[in-house]
């Protein structure tokens, strides 16, 4: 029996799981409460005792760094709330059921994440999410779950399979950004639980919610887990309809890793052809590297000094932004004969960078992604399959 066929019933109570984890760390803050609905007595956290244990770090500080919006508390609760649903295999519509390692799920993605968490928590290496960008047209959400189906259907709008009304999120909505944040927050909380210890999550977004998404991800995954905000040139041709005169031709992919200290992308093989050995240096092939700095003299005075060839006495002066290395490091490079000295004082000394000194055979992965792959390419592919 496959894992998918075993996913059914009531999903775990994430609040209880968090309480158990907390009490495992601090057993002295445990207490017991009686549920007024069921009459059952269960363990709970004594928050007064927990504050004494940890110290009232933020207590009484009205001004503190945080990101919030109307509905955030409900969004957190939604992620923890158990559901009684089942993933039902549809073998007659499946291909290679007994051998495939792929899984396609139709349904509410929040429910699907809760169901998948039971069997796949901590097992997913890579998650890619392409959520609605909240342009005012592509974001649809459930509205007022308390309405009866009959009452809801008497109003205008679309409906899901359960009779819930689906409402567009126009910019005239007073909670335009809040509704989007409340939609994405619980889904990212559950996605985090699915990742392996070295797992990576990538999320597509554009300027409508990029700032809010970054703040939410910093909170859920930790700002130290942020790897990069990749930039994708999504538009092939300029948009001349823009009121500002600026054609927005790009989107973003936010990337977070649960092990940010490790290499996330393999990258491309380094082009070793760029390394030559024209002077038969016994240390092997090398290429020249720029030594000009990037800081003004006010900002980094230790990088601004006259560079003199000790053998010829030629003074090459100092660039406007100084040198890349301080004098101590530069003297070591000179001693090791790793400086290429021009014959003219108007030339610019450069450093010998040896192939043998590289710590990796892989070049860095550029934050500018995609090569002539635009949104229209995906639209054309979908049209071919229609």
Structural summary, described in words:
- This protein has helices spanning 14-25, 47-54, 72-80, 109-120, 149-153, 176-194, 210-221, 327-335, 375-385, and strands spanning 30-34, 41-45, 124-129, 140-142, 158-159, 165-168, 195-205, 226-233, 250-257, 286-289, 339-340, 350-354, 368-369.
- The chain has 386 residues and is α+β, with helices and mostly antiparallel strands.
- A hairpin with a 6-residue loop joins strand 1 and strand 2 (41-45).
- It has three domains: 1-61 and 71-115, no CATH class; 121-136 and 171-266 and 365-386, Rossmann fold; 271-359, no CATH class.
- The protein contains nine helices and 13 strands.
- The longest helix has 19 residues, at 176-194.
- It starts with 13 loop residues before the first helix and ends with a helix.
- It has a five-stranded mixed beta sheet. Strands 4-6-5 form a three-stranded antiparallel beta sheet.
